[in-house]
Design brief:
By secondary structure, the protein is an all-alpha fold. It is built from 26 helices and three strands. The protein has a three-stranded antiparallel β-sheet with strand order 2-1-3.
């Protein structure tokens, strides 16, 4: 295999940026493909803000938590299908065509959403967007990985993660920009089509992945592209490595043709790669990251911030930290290593989730009481469940908001929002009366003196998650599989990621209603503890290894619990011999 193990240290970060001067072609490939990450991020972020205004326009959405979850989650269901088909498309027709199809589907979905006249058409548009996001999410890092020199591969694939988080931050800015525009949420969702159009136009002028071309027998085309990526003295080594990789495949399987599921599992290197890659994708989602991104304005309102605009503005903080974290990942990923970074990231997430659990427990158990004296303006709107309750004197804001048939809201005291307020029917008329008396109106969370600490908890969560688990699963999945299986295995991992995302997003609001917000965050924290154990036991370190040599590392790798220690000299020598 090519040239042993290159050293991946702090110089990888410097090399990534010096490349902009020495060889801008590689960065152009990486950033153009990375717009697929921007699509992913924009959709994740934009729906969190748009949902607040969709609820205002369509009363059935406001009244049904399941419908809110469905509007968010149908894009994820579409992404599951898109990722699954994307794996096959990548292997059959190449990475470039898969990205072009993803852009087209995303643009169609954005147009449908912007013109929707009700929840059904809005959901159809979300499905189309999901198809596009699912394909792009697994194709973009794969394309970047296959067009990157080994030493800076992690940093360049991290640009895809940066564009994901950059897309989320951009979506919050656009959400804020359109809060006072007519058709608020239509603009928010419709603008999503512009990045798809941009990438479609740019991809028309970029080449196919050189590694995919080589495997399909288009050796001269692959070599012509690799000449633009590698210096002359490394080109022949890279071509030889590709040749040996394809020859080894054919020797092992008898052909370079179709792949069966049994073949994936029976091949040791693929099986070990899938366990690590798929496991990372599962834990990335089940520690709750996309509940924070899809529902961050709602979470902030659950903590006692009443205003839609304030909730959106505060969500910019978490989104901005997420983008900053992905920039930090570009520095740390080839310096610290994938495995260690993931373990540190998940350990910090455990601490942040424990803090959020405590904050929301305090918020829900110390909410303001319901006053028995009703103002004249609201006396005809008293909540029926409160009026008929035998223990009405024991009611507080949280008890009021859980009332149903009809649903009720809490009009806070004009003197101090933490003083006893009134439990009244939740509708626009009552909301206007409450606001007319210069009082705050609550339907999704209760006033709390500690509510602002929820923002601190969310910020801490993002600070730990983004540089590590935000990027490591995608990077590992883009480099850990042998060339023959890379498209199909990447598709499997992305499909699992989106399926996990769907399960968490579809159940989050229901869980907060069923078991409470604090216990929902506690559950995510317990899962994160298991995630740390999984990373230490099952995930190998791929830092600095040329893609073709990772296969040898998986073949010889044993469980290595002391993740802070380097691989043994024997293993390193064994890989170099190959």
């Amino acid at each position: 295999m090519e040239g042993g193990i290159p050293t991946a240290d702090a110089s990888a970060f410097r090399d990534c940026f010096s490349l902009a001067w020495k060889n801008p072609y590689v960065l152009r490939l990486a950033f153009t493909a990375g717009i697929g990450g921007l699509l992913f991020g924009y959709d994740t972020g934009v729906i969190s803000g748009a949902l607040l205004y969709i609820r205002d326009d369509f009363k059935e959405v406001d009244q049904k938590v399941f419908l809110q979850e469905t509007i968010v989650s149908t894009a994820l269901a579409g992404a599951i299908v898109g990722a699954a088909i994307g794996g096959w498309l990548n292997d059959r027709f190449g990475r470039k065509l898969a990205l072009l199809i993803a852009d087209f589907l995303f643009f169609v979905g954005a147009v449908i959403m912007a013109s929707a006249n009700g929840p059904p058409l809005l959901i159809v548009g979300r499905v189309f967007v999901g198809f596009g996001v699912g394909m792009a999410s697994m194709t973009a890092p794969l394309y970047i990985s296959e067009a990157s020199p080994a030493k800076i591969r992690g940093a360049l694939v991290s640009t895809n993660a940066f564009l994901i988080t950059g897309g989320q931050f951009l979506s919050y800015l656009i959400n804020l920009a359109f809060t006072r525009a007519p058709g608020t949420w239509r603009w928010m969702l419709g603008v999503a089509g512009l990045p798809a159009l941009l990438q479609f136009a740019l991809m028309l002028f970029l080449p196919e992945s050189p590694r995919w071309l080589y495997r399909k027998g288009k050796v001269e085309e692959a070599k012509a592209i690799l000449k633009k990526i590698y210096p002359a003295h490394q080109l022949e080594e890279e071509m030889q490595a590709l040749h040996e990789s394809v020859e080894a495949e054919i020797k092992e399987t008898g052909s370079a043709g179709n792949i069966s599921c049994s073949e994936l599992w029976k091949t040791k290197t693929v099986r070990r790669g899938l366990i690590a890659g798929v496991g990372l994708q599962i834990f990335q989602q089940f520690v709750g990251i996309n509940t924070v991104m899809y529902y961050s304005p709602t979470i902030i309102q659950l903590a006692g911030i009443a205003s839609n605009q304030t909730a959106l503005l505060l969500s910019l903080v978490t989104s901005g930290l997420n983008a900053a974290g992905s920039i930090a990942s570009i520095y740390f990923i080839d310096r610290t290593g994938r495995r260690k970074l993931a373990a540190i990231s998940l350990s910090g997430v455990v601490i942040a989730l424990a803090l959020l659990c405590g904050i929301f427990y305090q918020t829900t158990t110390h909410s303001p009481k319901v006053t028995t004296s009703i103002t004249s303006h609201l006396k005809n709107y008293t909540c029926p469940a409160y009026s008929s309750a035998a223990n009405a004197n024991g009611w507080d804001c949280m008890k009021c908001l859980k009332a149903s048939s009809p649903e009720c809201g809490f009009c806070a005291s004009a003197t101090n929002k933490l003083f006893p307020g009134e439990c009244v029917i939740s509708n626009d008329t009552v909301k206007d009366v409450c606001h007319g008396e210069n009082r705050l109106w609550y339907t999704r969370g209760c006033p709390s003196k500690g509510g602002w600490f929820a923002l601190v908890g969310l910020a801490l969560y993002i600070i730990f998650f983004s540089p590590g688990m935000g990027t490591v699963p995608w990077i590992v999945n883009s480099e850990i599989y042998p060339l023959r299986y890379r498209g199909i295995c990447g598709g499997i991992a992305a499909t699992v990621n989106w399926t996990s995302n769907l399960i968490v997003a579809q159940s989050f609001l229901s869980l907060t209603k069923a078991i409470g917000t604090p216990w929902t965050f506690l559950m995510f924290g317990v899962i994160a503890v298991f995630g740390v154990c999984f990373v230490l036991i099952c995930v190998p370190e791929t830092k600095g290894l040329p893609i073709e040599e990772i296969e040898n590392m998986l073949e010889n790798r044993a469980i290595h619990l002391k993740f802070w220690e380097k691989r043994s000299d024997n293993l390193e020598k064994n890989i170099q011999i190959h």
